[in-house]
Specification:
single chain, about 270 residues, alpha/beta, Rossmann fold, 8-stranded mixed sheet, 10 helices, 8 strands, about 35% helix, about 20% strand
Length: about 270
C-alpha cells in the first residue's frame, strides 16, 4: 500500500462478494472504534498517515475500486457503468453493516461518497469530501483529461502545490527493488485505467443536480492551489448542500491530507467528534 516505512497501513482485510457474487471487493481495515469509510481517488488506494491517524480512534474501512485489487484486474469489466458501481458500493455497505458510519472521499472517491449520500440520504452519519470530483464549470475546467495524458514528470504538479514535501515524495516513490518497478508502474497505470471508465474525459454523472438531496452534516475541504480540480468548486458543493461547512487550505494542492495533514486531521476529528 505504501513505500513509506513510517506508515502502519491496514491491519486486516475482508473480501465481500457483491453484484450476485460476480465481483469480489477487497476492503482494507485498521483500527478499533466507530466505523469510518474511506473512498480512494482514481490512482488507487494509498494508505497514508491520514488514515493511520484516523485508525487510532475509528475503525477505518477502505474498499478498493473493482479492478484495482492486485491479482483481480478484470473485475472492472464486470461493472457496466457508474450507476452499477454506486449500487455495488451500497451493497457492500449493507453487507458490512456499515450503514450510519462516517464517510470520507478523496477526489473520485469524494464523488462516489457524495453520490451515495444523494441516492441514499441515511446511508452515512457524516460526509466529508477532500477535493471531490463530479461537478463542472466552463469558467473553471477540471484538468482530469489533462492528467490522463500528462507526461509522467508533470503528474506531481497536478497533485501537490509542493511536490518536494517528504510525504508527497513517499507517495510518488518507486519500489526500492528495481525488479518490482515495472509491476508497480503497470499497477498504477491500470488503476487509472479502471477509474477512467467513470472519469474520462470528465465525470458528468449528474451529481450537481443531486447535491440538494444530501441532508446529513457535510464538510468540504480543499486546497486553494489545487491544479487538478479548482478550489472554486468548494463553493458549489457548499452552496448546494444545506448547512455544509467549507474550509480552504492555503499553499495546498489536490492531495490536501498529505500537504496539510495536521489541519485536515484537526478539522475532520472536530467535525465528527
Amino acid at each position: 500500500m505504501s513505500n513509506n516505512t513510517n506508515i502502519k497501513g491496514p491491519e486486516r482485510e475482508e473480501v465481500i462478494g457483491v453484484w450476485n457474487d460476480e465481483i469480489s471487493l477487497r476492503v482494507n481495515i485498521a483500527g478499533d472504534g466507530p466505523a469510518l469509510l474511506y473512498f480512494h481517488p482514481a490512482g488507487g488506494l494509498y494508505w497514508d498517515e491520514f488514515l493511520d491517524a484516523l485508525a487510532e480512534s475509528y475503525t477505518v474501512y477502505a474498499p478498493e475500486l473493482p479492478g484495482t485489487t492486485p491479482g483481480d484486474p478484470y473485475a472492472i469489466h464486470k461493472v457496466k457503468d457508474y450507476t452499477d458501481l454506486i449500487l455495488m458500493y451500497e451493497e457492500l455497505i449493507q453487507k458490512l453493516n456499515l450503514k450510519g458510519s462516517v464517510a470520507i472521499g478523496q477526489s473520485m472517491g469524494g464523488m462516489i461518497a457524495f453520490d451515495l449520500a444523494s441516492f441514499y440520504p441515511d446511508i452515512f452519519s457524516h460526509l466529508i469530501g477532500l477535493a471531490p470530483c463530479g461537478l463542472w464549470r466552463d469558467d473553471a475546467p477540471v484538468a482530469i483529461a489533462d492528467l490522463y495524458v500528462a507526461a509522467p514528470e508533470t503528474v506531481p504538479s497536478f497533485l501537490f502545490d509542493d511536490p518536494s514535501l517528504p510525504a508527497a515524495q513517499a507517495m510518488l516513490s518507486l519500489p526500492e527493488d528495481p525488479a518490482n518497478i515495472p509491476k508497480h508502474v503497470a499497477q498504477a497505470v491500470w488503476n487509472l485505467g479502471c477509474a477512467g471508465k467513470f472519469m474520462w474525459p470528465f465525470p458528468d454523472h449528474g451529481l450537481g443536480g443531486r447535491l440538494h438531496r444530501i441532508a446529513i452534516p457535510t464538510l468540504v475541504l480543499w486546497g486553494r492551489n489545487d491544479n487538478l480540480v479548482p478550489s472554486i468548486y468548494a463553493e458549489d458543493f457548499g452552496a448546494n448542500i444545506s448547512g455544509s461547512e467549507v474550509h480552504l487550505y492555503e499553499n495546498c494542492g489536490h492531495i490536501l491530507q498529505i500537504e496539510k495533514l495536521d489541519d485536515a486531521l484537526s478539522d475532520v476529528k472536530r467535525f465528527i467528534a
